[in-house]
Amino acid sequence: MEKKKIPDIIIGRLPLYLRALNRMAANGSAISSSKELGEWVGISAAQIRKDISQFGEFGKQGTGYNIEFLSRKIREILNIDRIWDVAIIGMGDIGHGLTEYQGFRNRGFQVTLVFDNSPEKIGTKIGDLAVQDTADMVDTINKTDVKIAMIAVPADHAQTVADELLKTGVKAILNYAPIRINVPDNIRVQYIDPATHLQWMTYYL
């Protein structure tokens, strides 16, 4: 049976719901109404009910959502009821910071490979990980189960790195380089450019 097509905007809200549910659970809550969840994420209760109903009926009218159950279901929907290995390419300030970030593991991800092309950085350690040469990236990734990569290189190198990643089993790329990259339709790309978001916000200042 063909998988139901869910709009990207709804998929994009699920991690927000999961983050709020985790915080509620940490505060000792066991049940949440759609109204309460909406207050945590800044989205209307009606929209939350509509979003969640795309995947099934997970709450009871008059009772609300069991936080532990709904959290588990959202993890299953997002395929983070497992730990995904991640490779990071580029060990500048952003790449180094991402490698050291401790918040990935409890949200379904662990950085297992890091690469750079600088002779001064190759072979150095960041935490428990040794920085490897990008020249060996394709062979190294192909010996693993890595499906996700983060690109944190200068803009003029990002497309070259992306082209090399296409020779591996990577199917999803988080791109921190301030440039769009060209990849086939079967490769999922998300872009993060802090300067662009800052420029967006300054319009309102």
Automatic annotation (TrEMBL):
GO terms for biological process: negative regulation of DNA-templated transcription; response to redox state. NAD(+) binds at G90, M91, G92, D93, I94, G95. Residues 16-55 bind DNA. Keywords: Cytoplasm, DNA-binding, NAD, Repressor, Transcription, Transcription regulation. Residues 79-180 form the CoA-binding domain. SUPFAM superfamilies: NAD(P)-binding Rossmann-fold domains, Winged helix' DNA-binding domain. It is found in: Cytoplasm. GO terms for molecular function: DNA binding; DNA-binding transcription factor activity. It comes from the Bacteria. The keyword Transmembrane does not apply. Homodimer. Belongs to the transcriptional regulatory Rex family. Modulates transcription in response to changes in cellular NADH/NAD(+) redox state. This is Redox-sensing transcriptional repressor Rex.
